[in-house]
Amino acid sequence: MKKIDYSNFELIENIIKDINFNYKKDSYEKLDNIKYYWIETIGNKISKLTKVYKITDDNILTIICADSYAANELYLSKEKIIKILNEKIEKMGIKIEDIIFSYKQWKE
């Protein structure tokens, strides 16, 4: 496609070449696997009140909870949850260092 000489518009193909996508395939695959083991670890009933949100590079997992009650209950069992979850995901080469339970970001 030719650029019109009297326009200030850029061609879409020139713009797309310059876009830098920050997609980390390994990071998203890791998160998907953790989601599966999260449900297996805490059970279907409680997992409906939670969402695995993100994992940082230093292996801190953020879980979003439906309300403060769910976040508090999970927080009280945090060490046990980390231990069980780490046993399940160790074959992936991941070791969860900490879990943050947040209810302020919950959206249905």
Helix-strand layout with pairing:
Layout: H1 12-18, H2 25-42, H3 44-47, E1 50-55, E2 60-65, H4 68-76, H5 78-89, E3 98-102
Parallel strand pairs: 2-3
Antiparallel strand pairs: 1-2
General description of the model:
The protein is α+β, with helices and mostly antiparallel strands and 108 residues long. The chain is built from five helices and three strands, in the order αααββααβ. The chain has helices spanning 12-18, 25-42, 44-47, 68-76, 78-89; strands spanning 50-55, 60-65, 98-102. Helix 2 packs across helix 5 (78-89). It is elongated, with a radius of gyration of 20 Å.
Overview in brief:
The chain has 108 residues and is α+β, with helices and mostly antiparallel strands.
SSE string, helix = H, strand = E?
HHHEEHHE
Helix content class = 40-55%
Oligomeric assembly: single chain
Gyration radius, rounded: 20 Å
Provide a count of the helices: 5
What structural class results from the helix and strand content? alpha+beta
List low-confidence stretches: none
* Overall geometry: elongated
Keywords:
108 residues; alpha+beta; 3-stranded mixed sheet; 5 helices; 3 strands; elongated
